[in-house]
Amino acid sequence: MEIIAVANQKGGVGKTTTAVNLAASIHAKRKKVLMIDLDPQGNATTGTGLEKLALEYTLADVFIDDIPINETIVRSPAGFDVIGANRELAGTDISIMTMTNSHALLKTAMESVSGYDYVIIDCAPSLNLLTVNALVATQGVIIPMQCEYYALEGLADLSQTIERLSELNPDLYIRGVVRTLYDGRNTLTRDVSAELEAHFGELMYKTIIPRNIRLAEAPAHGMPVLAFEKNSKGAKAYRKLATEVVKQSRSAQ
C-alpha cells in the first residue's frame, strides 16, 4: 500500500482537483484506492459525489474520540473509497496539539488500514498540524504547481518543511511536481515552467495539466472529470499522470 500526500500550502493551484482526479484515474486502472480528505473545507469529499454534511465520521472523530479509522471509510459515488471531511475537522489541529505524538496520529491510525494499492491524501492549503500528520504518514508527496511566481515562493517553504520533517519520517520525499492550470500561450507560464524544470529536473512529471473548462465544471456535479467528460483534455491529462505515478511504483519495486 502506497500512501501519497498531495500538498501545497498555497491555495488555488489545483491541489484538490489533482487529488480527486488522480484517485479516480488510478482507480480506473483497476487499483484499489482510498482517498483521505484532510481539508476541513471538504471539497475533495464533494468532488467524489459525497454529501460532506451527511458524513457520520471524519478523522476528527479518530483523532479526538478514538473512533477506529476503518469506521470512517465510505464508498463514494465515484467508485473508490473515501475518508471524507467537513467543518468537524476545523480546529482539530488545535485540539490535538497537546496530545502525545500529535504529529503522528494519522500514521498510527493508518496501521489498521489494509487492502488498498494506493492511499491519496488531500491536504489543506496550509502547513497546519493536520498537514504535518499527512506528511508524517506518507511515503511520498506530489506537489501541484501553478506556473506563476507566487507559487514558486510557497514551494520553497514546502520544500523546507519536507526537509525538516524527514527526521520524523525518514521515508518522506518529493515524489513529483505536477504543473497545473497550464496555459502555454502565456509567456510567464512558460518561463516559470522552465525554471521549475531547471530546479527539479527528473522530479517534474512529464504530464502537464491544462486549464480546462470541464475540469472546472466537474466538481459542481460531484464527479471526477473522468466520469463527467472522459474525453476532455483534463481527463486525458489526469489519465496520463496516473500512468506516470503507477510507473513510479513499478520502478521502485
Can you put this structure into words, describing what you see?
With 253 residues, the protein is an alpha/beta fold. It has one domain (2-252): P-loop containing nucleotide triphosphate hydrolases (Rossmann fold, 3-Layer(aba) Sandwich), CATH 3.40.50.300. The protein has helices spanning 15-27, 43-47, 59-65, 92-95, 105-110, 129-137, 149-165, 187-200, 213-217, 225-228, 233-252, and strands at 2-6, 33-37, 73-75, 81-83, 118-122, 140-146, 174-182, 204-210. 45% of the residues are buried. The model has no long low-confidence stretch (mean pLDDT 92).
Key descriptive features of the protein:
single chain; 253 residues; alpha/beta; Rossmann fold; 8-stranded mixed β-sheet; 8 strands; 41% helix; 17% strand
How does the SSE layout of this entry go?
Blueprint: E1 2-6, H1 15-27, E2 33-37, H2 43-47, H3 59-65, E3 73-75, E4 81-83, H4 92-95, H5 105-110, E5 118-122, H6 129-137, E6 140-146, H7 149-165, E7 174-182, H8 187-200, E8 204-210, H9 213-217, H10 225-228, H11 233-252
Parallel strand pairs: 1-5, 1-6, 2-4, 2-5, 6-7, 7-8
Antiparallel strand pairs: 3-4
